[in-house]
Amino acid sequence: MAEPKNAPRVPVEERLFSLVLALLATESGLTKNEILSTVQGYRQRYRTGGDNVNLERQFERDKDDIRDLGVPLETTEAPDQPGNNHSLRYRIPRGSYELPADITFSNEETTLLNLAAMVWREGSLSGESRRALMKLRSLGVESDEPVLGYAPRLRSRESAFDPLSVALERHSIVRFRYLKPGESEARVRTLAPLALVQHQGRWHVHGIDQDVAEKRTFLLSRIVGSVQPTGESFADDGGDHAANALAELDAIWANGVGVLEVTPGTDAAARLARRKGSAITAENQLTLHYSDMNLLADELAGYGPEVLVLSPPWLRDAVLARLEQTAAAHGRPVRGTDERHGEADHG
Known about the structure:
The chain has helices at 12-24, 32-38, 53-68, 94-97, 107-124, 127-138, 161-170, 241-255, 267-272, 293-302, 313-329; strands at 30-31, 74-76, 89-91, 172-178, 187-199, 202-209, 214-219, 223-233, 257-262, 279-282, 285-289, 307-311. It is α+β, with helices and mostly antiparallel strands. The chain has three domains: 12-149, no CATH class; 161-242, SH3 type barrels (Roll), CATH 2.30.30; 256-329, 2-Layer Sandwich (Alpha-Beta Plaits), CATH 3.30.70. The relative contact order is 0.08. Residues 120-128, 144-156, 336-340 and 342-347 have low confidence and may be disordered.
């Protein structure tokens, strides 16, 4: 049985946020069926007693997304049903998610946070959310706080997200300017959008590039200016485009491997070692995966002398080029490439 055709569309970021808050709401956790039938963003498409395969796939992708964002999502088996995947319960332990006890705020910061919390509480607990909370309680799931209903309209950082989302829903062809790394000017691209996906914390649009009649995936942060509809529409073949796009990005990420030497005790060591797929291979050395060399080079250059790229050579050259540009912009000479990427000589 198909999903409801008139189900209201809930933005992806709102669904993920509602999922996180729902999993924080109960100590014992929620089953997949409880999540799909009650949480904002899933319940609108849930079919009682019907086929929810696509919705379950969406939930599996959402789990990976929130874990990639550093959220400590746990899975526990029912003691009386070991090995039964249908009885698995999902939860986010509040103690692992809250700020460390040693973090403090000034009086001014505390005041601003309290004001923001007041506005949030007053405006976010909708009728939809109250009904979802009541339904969970009717299932025997108790919560000390009505956090399940908090569903603020979170916005994507990239301004292209909303117009692309509308075009995706309406099957509209759009046009935008896209700046690839290494190019001085943005090129106009015409796209039939098939899916918006988040991979490794960044949003991508996957669709059919009308200029080459082939499927392409574009990073939203590289779209320059506004996204404009062309007035043309296209027919969707009904495939699982989001899953296909994520599989392609995962393959690129798996094949992109960098080897770094990282100074112990630094910010770079703390952050890079915790990335998905990172592994310490030797003293002060680690390997990591990446899906976009230029984005990684930007990040590594920001760590300065804390990181030295050992391989691949093109990643090392990209980081060095960024450090040289920074040094030149500040009128500083650059040392040879054999001294930690040629850091700027401040002495």
